[in-house]
């Protein structure tokens, strides 16, 4: 154990060997982790208790879970800007690396981060918005939520990198001290004027008039930029990098409690939205019409809790990484792409803009309509194609912790893991073409003949909306016909449609 702690940091050792009890290969789980299993059970019980009455109960809890992280972030911000090395961390954050622009994985991870933080394509936004009044200003809400999310991400980035800068500076200074102490012990105080060769080479040094032969010792490499680059993402950032930095704070226990309470509230708050999206969808589709909502929520929580036991063993961290990498990025982008195509090319951007105008009294600008019709689908399709191409050419793998080396080693995913990835992705997206095919052939899956109530005439009178002719720019950009319908936009298509 003593050797391992010297090779890896104490935080790494505790995280991998004590907390996760991690195995060295995804194929060999080794032990069942009862501590992680108990934590998952408690977490799902708490989620159920908060969600038992649906939006009525979770809405009250959100007042705490949504505001507490901001309070902690502000506290960490003022602590972070007083730390030594803070400026190095912020410079590292805001210094662009232009070669990364061409890396499709960067765009995929950036898109996934936005989807996660905004809750896009999960169904949670649609579920919660269904509780709003029909004349709710969704345009204002969308702008406010997007701006708040962007500013929060930037603020959190400043907090994290100020502390990462402090941690990197401490490691760098300790490395320099160890290096200088080693040179002082070997060469004495005259080492500052000596030009040293590579490690392992023989050389002679004049010390106090005596020519002495030395073998150049191995010295630690001290590089601040390398320490700043040696950051992590996901669990590695939260439980290793950030934790190592907090351990060096005065009163580290207080800061640790604050930090992990923030993580807990963020996690449980995110789970509310995801679970509410599932529960509301099942209720609206009347899959279990005679089942009370409390029992339905409890059943879903129980199933999810049982599934989470997949992560409560030695290889659970690798399986969690598999789920995190593939069940939350490609499916979300594919679902969001289909949503954009459905709105822009099936329902029609003009009809969608008309609906928003009826609800808010304000018509969306041309910019938003161009985004819905062209920019957003094209961006998502480009990210998907380039990401799939890079994945096919370079492959994928996971970082396995090797206890004898005290470090991680890159390993490829086994065949069964690749098959599991295909199941995760296809299980999320096959419903879209499947239901479309069933509808095309008249096969009824869900009874949805009852049309939703929408007081179009009342809203039109309330906002004073008059019928408006199709503008020239709408005809040019979207091939909108005079009757309001939309045609295809390749050359000659609109004229043919009009003649017919």
From TrEMBL:
<dbReference type="Pfam" id="PF00209">
    <property type="entry name" value="SNF"/>
</dbReference>
<dbReference type="InterPro" id="IPR037272">
    <property type="entry name" value="SNS_sf"/>
</dbReference>
<keyword id="KW-0813">Transport</keyword>
<dbReference type="GO" id="GO:0015293">
    <property type="term" value="F:symporter activity"/>
</dbReference>
<feature type="transmembrane region" description="Helical">
    <location>
        <begin position="61"/>
        <end position="81"/>
    </location>
</feature>
<feature type="binding site">
    <location>
        <position position="266"/>
    </location>
    <ligand>
        <name>Na(+)</name>
    </ligand>
</feature>
<comment type="similarity">
    <text>Belongs to the sodium:neurotransmitter symporter (SNF) (TC 2.A.22) family.</text>
</comment>
<feature type="binding site">
    <location>
        <position position="117"/>
    </location>
    <ligand>
        <name>Na(+)</name>
    </ligand>
</feature>
<dbReference type="GO" id="GO:0005886">
    <property type="term" value="C:plasma membrane"/>
</dbReference>
<feature type="transmembrane region" description="Helical">
    <location>
        <begin position="295"/>
        <end position="323"/>
    </location>
</feature>
<keyword id="KW-0812">Transmembrane</keyword>
<protein>
    <recommendedName>
        <fullName>Sodium-dependent neutral amino acid transporter B(0)AT3</fullName>
    </recommendedName>
</protein>
<dbReference type="GO" id="GO:0046872">
    <property type="term" value="F:metal ion binding"/>
</dbReference>
<feature type="transmembrane region" description="Helical">
    <location>
        <begin position="143"/>
        <end position="164"/>
    </location>
</feature>
<keyword id="KW-0479">Metal-binding</keyword>
<feature type="binding site">
    <location>
        <position position="149"/>
    </location>
    <ligand>
        <name>Na(+)</name>
    </ligand>
</feature>
<dbReference type="GO" id="GO:0006865">
    <property type="term" value="P:amino acid transport"/>
</dbReference>
<feature type="transmembrane region" description="Helical">
    <location>
        <begin position="370"/>
        <end position="393"/>
    </location>
</feature>
<keyword id="KW-1133">Transmembrane helix</keyword>
<feature type="transmembrane region" description="Helical">
    <location>
        <begin position="32"/>
        <end position="49"/>
    </location>
</feature>
<feature type="transmembrane region" description="Helical">
    <location>
        <begin position="114"/>
        <end position="131"/>
    </location>
</feature>
<dbReference type="GO" id="GO:0035725">
    <property type="term" value="P:sodium ion transmembrane transport"/>
</dbReference>
<keyword id="KW-0915">Sodium</keyword>
<keyword id="KW-0769">Symport</keyword>
<feature type="transmembrane region" description="Helical">
    <location>
        <begin position="329"/>
        <end position="349"/>
    </location>
</feature>
<keyword id="KW-0472">Membrane</keyword>
<feature type="binding site">
    <location>
        <position position="269"/>
    </location>
    <ligand>
        <name>Na(+)</name>
    </ligand>
</feature>
<dbReference type="InterPro" id="IPR000175">
    <property type="entry name" value="Na/ntran_symport"/>
</dbReference>
<feature type="transmembrane region" description="Helical">
    <location>
        <begin position="413"/>
        <end position="432"/>
    </location>
</feature>
<feature type="binding site">
    <location>
        <position position="270"/>
    </location>
    <ligand>
        <name>Na(+)</name>
    </ligand>
</feature>
<feature type="transmembrane region" description="Helical">
    <location>
        <begin position="257"/>
        <end position="283"/>
    </location>
</feature>
């Amino acid at each position: 154990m003593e050797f391992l702690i010297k090779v890896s940091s104490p935080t790494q050792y505790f995280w991998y060997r004590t907390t996760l009890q991690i195995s060295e290969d995804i194929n060999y789980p080794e032990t069942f982790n009862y501590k992680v299993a108990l934590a998952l059970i408690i977490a799902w019980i708490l989620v159920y208790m908060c969600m038992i009455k649906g939006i009525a109960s979770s809405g009250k809890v959100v007042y705490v879970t949504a505001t507490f992280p901001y309070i902690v972030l502000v506290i960490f911000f003022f602590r972070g800007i007083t730390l030594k090395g803070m400026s190095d961390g912020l410079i590292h954050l805001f210094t662009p690396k232009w070669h990364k622009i061409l890396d499709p994985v960067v765009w995929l991870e950036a898109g996934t981060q936005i989807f996660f933080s905004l809750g896009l394509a999960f169904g949670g936004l649609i579920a919660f918005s269904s509780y709003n009044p029909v004349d709710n200003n969704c345009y204002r809400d969308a702008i406010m939520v997007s701006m708040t999310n962007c500013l929060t991400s930037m603020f959190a980035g400043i907090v994290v990198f100020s502390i990462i800068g402090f941690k990197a500076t401490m490691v760098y200074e300790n490395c320099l001290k160890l290096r200088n102490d080693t040179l002082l012990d070997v060469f004495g105080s005259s080492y500052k004027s000596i030009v040293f060769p590579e490690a392992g080479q023989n050389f002679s040094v004049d010390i106090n008039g005596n020519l002495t032969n030395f073998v150049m010792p191995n010295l630690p490499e001290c590089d601040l930029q390398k320490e700043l680059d040696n950051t992590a993402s996901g669990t590695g950032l939260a439980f290793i990098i950030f934790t190592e930095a907090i351990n060096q704070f005065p009163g580290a226990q207080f800061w640790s409690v604050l930090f992990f309470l923030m993580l807990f509230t963020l996690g449980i708050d995110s789970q509310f939205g995801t679970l509410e999206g599932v529960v509301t969808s099942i209720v609206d589709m009347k899959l279990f019409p005679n089942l009370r909502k409390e029992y339905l929520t409890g059943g879903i929580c129980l199933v999810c809790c049982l599934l989470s036991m997949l992560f409560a063993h030695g290889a659970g961290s690798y399986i969690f990484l598999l789920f995190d990498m593939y069940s939350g990025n490609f499916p979300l982008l594919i679902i969001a792409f289909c949503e954009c195509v459905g709105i822009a090319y099936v329902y029609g951007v003009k009809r969608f803009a008309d609906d928003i105008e009826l609800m808010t009294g304000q018509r969306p600008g041309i910019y938003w309509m161009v985004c819905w019709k062209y920019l957003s689908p094209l961006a998502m399709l480009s990210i998907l194609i380039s990401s799939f191409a890079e994945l096919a050419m370079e492959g994928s793998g996971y970082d396995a912790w090797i206890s004898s080396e005290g470090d991680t080693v890159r390993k490829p995913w086994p065949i069964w893991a690749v098959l599991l990835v295909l199941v995760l992705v296809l299980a999320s997206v096959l419903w879209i073409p499947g239901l479309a095919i069933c509808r095309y052939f008249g096969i009824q899956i869900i009874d949805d003949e009852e049309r939703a109530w929408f007081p179009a005439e009342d809203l039109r009178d309330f906002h004073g909306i008059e019928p408006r002719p199709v503008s020239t720019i709408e005809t040019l950009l979207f091939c909108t016909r005079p009757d309001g319908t939309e045609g295809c936009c390749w050359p000659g298509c609109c004229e043919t449609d009009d003649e017919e």
